[in-house]
Amino acid sequence: MAAEHRKPVEPDAAPTVAHHTAHHAATAEHPSAPQAEQHPDQPAHPDQQHSGRQQDEAPDPNRWKALVICLLGGGIVLLDVSIVNVALQSISSGLSGATPEAVQWILSGYALAFGLLLVPGGRLGDAVGRRRMFVVGVALFTLASALCGFAPNGFVLVVARLVQGLAGGLLTPQVTALIQQLFRGKERGTAFGLFGATVGIATAIGPLVGGLLITAFGTENGWRFVFFVNLPVGLVTILLAFRYLPTTPKAERGQKHDFDPVGIVLLGAAVVALLLPFVQSEQWKSNAKWWLVVAAVVFAVLFVLWERRYGRSHEPVIDLGLFRRRSFSLGVGLATVYFAGFTPLFFVLTLALQSGLQYSALLAGVASVPFAIGSGIASTIGGRIVHRFGRQLIVVGTVLVLIGLGAVIWVVADHYGPDLGWWLVLPLLVAGIGSGLTISPNQTLTLSEVPVQQGGSAGGLIQVGARVGSAIGIAAVGSVFYSSLASTKGDYSQGLPLGLGVSLVFVAAALVAGIVDVVVGKARGTEASV
Fold first, then answer.
1. Residue 496 buriedness (CB in 10 A; 0-12 / 13-18 / 19+)
2. How far is the C-alpha of 311 from the C-alpha of 317, rounded, in Å?
């Protein structure tokens, strides 16, 4: 499977000047310079590589400790994406004012707020310091978690979850940007592998942690400890961040950055308008909600037009030139469709186990452990070998996910009963291994040619793709799942396979994207590498 790869491109090897300064110099003084015609997938000039490496000859001695801190902060944010799923019944029975609408917003409000701040949060980190924004994000997330835990009614809990989501959107892009800043070459692949393991484990193990806490503290108040568990982790992370996370690199100190408020508002409006009809698809029955998708397209077009105009004289919130790099544009697209297929698995599976088979919150969480184990191990391995195999590794990963999901569908259709959890062990383990070989290698390759100065906003874009994909996937899978339950009078053995069939389609789309990149890369001699 190993293939010959071109010489790796170090994204951070570009000359260390401010992005907008370099842009204006290139367009104003040398409009026809050969560099401007360079294909985005071609290696940088050796002189440029040498020039950029001078600033980072000595790696940060605390980089691995810093990585652990980043993973702690990023992990609690991702854990809260799925940990609340098993706590919804506890919230409904133990909190006054927890109406069905409020419970839905406890889930969807977090997703909306999280997606809203991902790119602006990354931009802030690039502009004013990643450590500073990381600490602010963790502190705000910790305070919001405390407010969630002490919430006296459903309204306060919804507001607290919105703040929690905003904090997560501010924090998450700093993690990928710091990895870009601290690591080079093979080490970067290993670091992103550990981050991918964190993504997979946190998403899959959330229901287990939630189930353990609810079992330990009771149904009435157990849901509060689902949020309280973030408090000690957050406080420790903040203290260690001041000690081990790096400050702004010397080459970037003193640079002035434009915040592009109009661009941020237009992008935020596009993200919210796109996410809202999907995250509210079950509660908002009217078809009028789909007009928001049209509004999202309009906002997106206005955003692109504004960024092109603004970028002529200022530094835009997103350098649209990033999308001319195949490794970046295809990686963001692949992340979007993959998360559309990957995330709904735990959403519908948890519902089927708890509501259909009367599993406790703890047992429903235990069912996801094989996926978490497979994902954690495979992500770590994938990060170490991605430099050898490139996107071929992602193709293998998505094939394994398809096999695992297909096996889950077969098991549910043929063995739906009290022992379903045991039957799911092997299929979920295979799917987890495939997921580990997909998420972290894709993250590494997608950012492989992004300059360090743009690491925050670029990492935010990948996360936006993942959040949008998750929302679309849950809405699409949930729609089929609930429609089947309605037509079969609650037969989960039919609804779950049909819903997961939609997940299979999304994962298949990710597989096609990976194959296309491998084929095109071989034809052009520009395979994506680390």
1. buried
2. 9
**What's the whole-model pTM score?**
0.76
Least confident range from 133-147, 228-242, 466-480, 492-506: namely 466-480
Tokens of 229: 């568990």
Report the alpha-carbon angle 368-511-74, nearest 5: 45
Nearest to 344 by CA among 478, 513, 184, 158: 478
Amino acid at 363: L
What pLDDT score was predicted for residue 251?
57
Closest CA to 509 of 458, 456, 462, 473: 473
Per-residue tokens: 70: 């980043």
* Residue-level pLDDT at 249: 64
The rounded distance, in Å, linking the Cα atoms of 157 and 104 is: 12
Residue 202 is which amino acid?
A
Alpha carbons 479 and 264: distance in angstroms, whole number: 32
CA-closest candidate to residue 68, choices 245, 228, 186, 187: 245
Distance between CA atoms of 106 and 69, rounded to whole angstroms?
27
Q: Count Cβ atoms within 10 A of the Cβ of residue 243 and give its class: 0-12 exposed, 13-18 middle, 19 or more buried.
A: exposed
Q: What CA–CA distance (Å, rounded) separates 471 from 280?
A: 9
Any idea what DSSP says for residue 321? G
DSSP letters along 446-479, please? Answer: HTTTS-GGGHHHHHHHHHHHHHHHHHHHHHHHHH
Residues in the chain: 530
Looking at every residue in the chain, the average pLDDT score rounds to 82
153 DSSP 8-state letter: S
Task: Report whether pLDDT(46) > 70.
Answer: no
Question: Contact 188/137 with Cβ under 8 angstroms?
Answer: no
Question: How buried is residue 505: exposed, middle or buried, by Cβ count under 10 Å (0-12/13-18/19+)?
Answer: middle
Q: Which amino acid is at 159?
A: V
Which pair of structure tokens corresponds to residue 404?
């695992």
Q: Is 249 exposed, middle or buried (0-12, 13-18, 19+ CB in 10 A)?
A: middle
258, 120 contact by CB (below 8 A): no
Q: Give 313-361 pLDDT, tens digit per residue.
A: 887 877 888 888 888 888 899 999 999 998 888 888 888 888 889 888 7
